[in-house]
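User: I'm putting together notes for a lab meeting next week and I want to include a structural view of one of the chains we've been expressing. I don't have a solved structure, so I'd like a prediction I can at least talk through. The sequence is below, exactly as it appears in our construct file.
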Amino acid sequence: MRSATPTGGDAGLEDSELVRRVRAGDRSAFAALVRRHGGALLRFARLFVRESSAAEEVVQDTWMAVLEGLDGFEGRASFKTWLYRILANRARTRAVREGRSVPFSALAETEGEEHAVDPERFDARGMWRDPPVGWTDETPERLALEAETRQVMEAAVQALPPAQRAVLVLRDEDGLETEEICNLLGLTVTNQRVLLHRARTRVRQAIEEHVRGER
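Assistant: Thanks for the context. Below is the predicted structure for the 215-residue chain, given as structure tokens.
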């Protein structure tokens, strides 16, 4: 692979164009792909293997597999989806080898039923006994920009059950579509939808409790 001088414009290129350049031998294009997807891949790997060192090794193995298999990438799915599939396969293999493999589908089936809002917050007439915090112009999006609230949100995500955390991260942080998530995690569309709803509810409640405590 030939060396190429970075132009600084890689950030604005589509994955497909970067892939084309990598195939042509452009090392800077491959570096751009690593910069673009590396953080998300590491986060995804930690859904399967919790130790940072193991997750980093899985990500490295994934990038090696990308280089080896890029000529066979036909573009039927997006590069990002293809990349995640490679990582998921390698992460599962490692988890099985280390005796810690639990299918996300099994986790989804065994999670207990939950209410979007605690029933104790309503009275016998169905009226609010403990109403939600009024955020007025402080929307969740705006609050997420504040460092302290962001820390609360991240802690809430990490505290989620594995299946909920996986679906939330892939959908809301990495932007994958429902079908892609179901294929990666072996979930039905219904399970994926329920898990995402529960995860979002838990995170929202954590933020609400944080805001309530600040007032």
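A couple of points you could mention at the meeting. The domain at 104-214 is CATH 1.10.10.10 (Arc Repressor Mutant, subunit A). The chain has two domains: 10-97, 104-214.

User: Perfect, that's what I needed.
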